[in-house]
Amino acid sequence: MSLTVPPSLLEAAESGPVDDEDFAACVRDSLPYAWQTVSRVVADLRSGDAEFADNAVPPPTEAERGQLLRALASDAIRASLESHFGVRLAFQNCHRVAAFRPSAVDSDTYRRFVSTRGQLLNQSPELRDC
């Protein structure tokens, strides 16, 4: 299971829509490494004028790698992170997550990052089994 869902949140989901911040808190508490990584990348983005900031450091363990993969592979979790932090996330390999300013999503920089060429150029033998 990718999220540890508190009983009260599960009850809310069973009876109707769930509050966005309650879901974000569930993500934060369930996937702390992923939350911290995205938080750090967003802080780096906000501290400068660049169109994006990214994380190029592989997770220290397979458990942390799994958290990052679960967070960014789930449409709902990824959308929650993007909404909470006010960014657009992009993901390459098993660890390279980038946060883009919303205004940069239509930029050449963003298109290069999410392109097939960008994906291929970000490969290395060490990352083949990540």
Characterise this structure.
This protein is mostly helical and 130 residues long. 55% of the residues lie in helices and 10% in strands. It has helices at 7-15, 20-30, 32-46, 62-73, 75-85, 108-114, 116-121, and strands spanning 52-54, 88-92, 96-100. Strand 2 (88-92) and strand 3 form a beta hairpin. Helix 2 crosses helix 3, helix 2 (20-30) crosses helix 5 (75-85) and helix 3 (32-46) crosses helix 4. The longest helix has 15 residues, at 32-46. The protein is globular and about 45 Å long. The model has no long low-confidence stretch (mean pLDDT 87).
Biggest sheet statistics: 3 strands, antiparallel
Lateral strand order in the biggest sheet: 1-3-2
Give the H and E element order.
Answer: HHHEHHEEHH
Would you count the extended β strands for me? 3
Q: Strand fraction band?
A: 5-15%
Can you give the mean pLDDT? 87
What general outline do the C-alpha atoms trace? globular
Tell me the structural class. mainly alpha
Radius of gyration from the alpha-carbon trace, in angstroms: 15 Å
Pfam families: KH_NucS_shadow
Compact overview of the structure:
The chain is mainly α and 130 residues long. 55% of the residues lie in helices and 10% in strands. The chain starts with 6 loop residues before the first helix and ends in a 9-residue tail after the last helix.
Descriptive labels:
single chain, 130 residues, mainly alpha, three-stranded antiparallel β-sheet, 3 strands, globular
Write the layout of secondary structure elements.
Blueprint: H1 7-15, H2 20-30, H3 32-46, E1 52-54, H4 62-73, H5 75-85, E2 88-92, E3 96-100, H6 108-114, H7 116-121
Antiparallel strand pairs: 1-3, 2-3
Helix pairs in contact: 2-3, 2-5, 3-4, 4-5
